[in-house]
């Protein structure tokens, strides 16, 4: 058995290590600075209660982006030096974000040990490579992202750090082969356990969904589908689940080999960045001639996001979660005894609210970021939740789950078509969405992103918007002058959230303008970017009249968009005449 020693290293604080919406995300060049990763990892260990570190089991893995391997070896050595007993690593360092959550919750090691938490190495939908982003975040023993109380502590620790501990003489561990390597240190044995990246997750999915009925749908000659992993980690799960378990054809999968730079692309599943899928699904100009598949989907780098498409049809993520919630009990065995409640993030459209009201379900509106759903799920009051940013999930884990969302949609399609597989035409994604609108009304929705704008200008814009809320009368006047045909403003504020479970309060979670007809404008600064600022503008309008739910959403929202852009003086303040991304 290899012996190792522990070194204490002096260090000093490095600025800017405040975790954002989902962990610390910076350029690889920043992470490669001496002590940068070390400081953050030690600050995290110091923020956790000692028994969650000393003698504990911790997971480390991620989406396989550039710098992951190096980071994993550093974290292993630091964990050993901090008294961690055992480190679990997905083979090749790969685990999707939802798989990490599942492994923390489900996996049992030697003597039935469970993990106390885990480091997820990802910058999610941000590009990867030597000049792009790397990221790290810590998830707790419930499998969910560390709550603000912990991330605040981590940050404070990074501002005062003086030392870290590392087992410098511990050799690098081969993480490409499954198996356990044991070492001995001052506090006894230390194990590195490399395991299959997909087993636990696949087992969990099989316990939630009826794979047999999905298999039948996929086998129907009338059904065809296309899944795009955008070269992220979703590819390894897609191969196992869609090909091996569900019998789909290999040609159904595109970009399903993980690459450390995501093939140079932006691993963000939306209409702008998932170009190849969008073309295949008949949603780009160049694809007007083809016959697209019935169903299409994509994931982001760490596979917690999903985009769902039908033949020439885009499903907004806000509609997607509402439709999953409305159909879950019938179509998904895991929910057959009913939903405990549903939740959405504040900027997500109110489509889910209408379903909750109709089905008499508990409903919660939380700030942006998955960490806020965890408490609700742990308290047993939330089964299905989602965000407008292509995030959908349930209480099977404590992260959003890209593959789960696809299986949920396939389940709904399978259920709706179970007696129709021999029929002339399958019930399509578009049919399901349009029926939903007919029943519940439609929430027209769009989000404008202005990426990498000057941080000072973004701050100025937000401050001015908050100031504009001080007088509702003046605000109403200003809006009327911009567009006389939009409804009157009923309320304007900054969203503040009091967690119903632990009573903690989160302030400044987005600037809201609420109109009398249910329309909403929301402005937020992104907390996941790594340079400059990203302004997000969320625009929503409710239409109850079934005769009017079939409009083009950009047309329907044009008046509100005009109000949003003029009210915020976005062009004047940022110099941007158009957003970088529209979803
Ligand atoms: C964005 C999304 C938010 C999501 C977060 C993490 O945050 O808006 O809804 O939870 O990314 O998703 P922000 O602060 O940039 O708006 V992921 O897939 O990047 O972990
Ligand atoms: Co992600």
**How much helical structure, as a percent, in the residues?**
25-40%
Bound small molecules, deduplicated: alpha-D-glucose-1-phosphate-6-vanadate, cobalt (II) ion
Mean pLDDT comes to: 94
CATH superfamily of the largest domain: Alpha-D-Glucose-1,6-Bisphosphate, subunit A, domain 3
Number of helices: 18
Q: Look at the structure and give the CATH class of the largest domain.
A: Alpha Beta
Cα gyration radius (Å): 24 Å
Beta-strand proportion: 15-25%
How does the overall form come out from the CA principal axes? Answer: globular
Compute the number of structural domains: 3
Q: Characterize the largest beta sheet: strand count, sense, and whether it forms a barrel.
A: 8 strands, mixed
Give a verbal description of the structure.
With 583 residues, this protein is of the alpha/beta class. It has three domains: 2-197, Alpha-D-Glucose-1,6-Bisphosphate, Chain A, domain 3; 201-439, Alpha-D-Glucose-1,6-Bisphosphate, Chain A, domain 3 (3-Layer(aba) Sandwich), CATH 3.40.120.10; 442-582, TATA-Binding Protein, CATH 3.30.310.50. Helices cover 33% and strands 23% of the residues. The chain contains 18 helices and 27 strands. The strands form six sheets. An eight-stranded mixed beta sheet has the order 1-9-10-5-4-6-7-3, with helices on both faces. Strands 21-24-25-26-20-27 form a six-stranded antiparallel beta sheet. Strands 12-11-13-14-15 form a five-stranded mixed beta sheet. A hairpin with a 6-residue loop joins strand 22 and strand 23 (505-506). Helix 7 (211-219) crosses helix 13 and helix 10 (317-331) packs parallel to helix 11 (351-358). It binds alpha-D-glucose-1-phosphate-6-vanadate and cobalt (II) ion. The site of alpha-D-glucose-1-phosphate-6-vanadate has 18 residues, from loops.
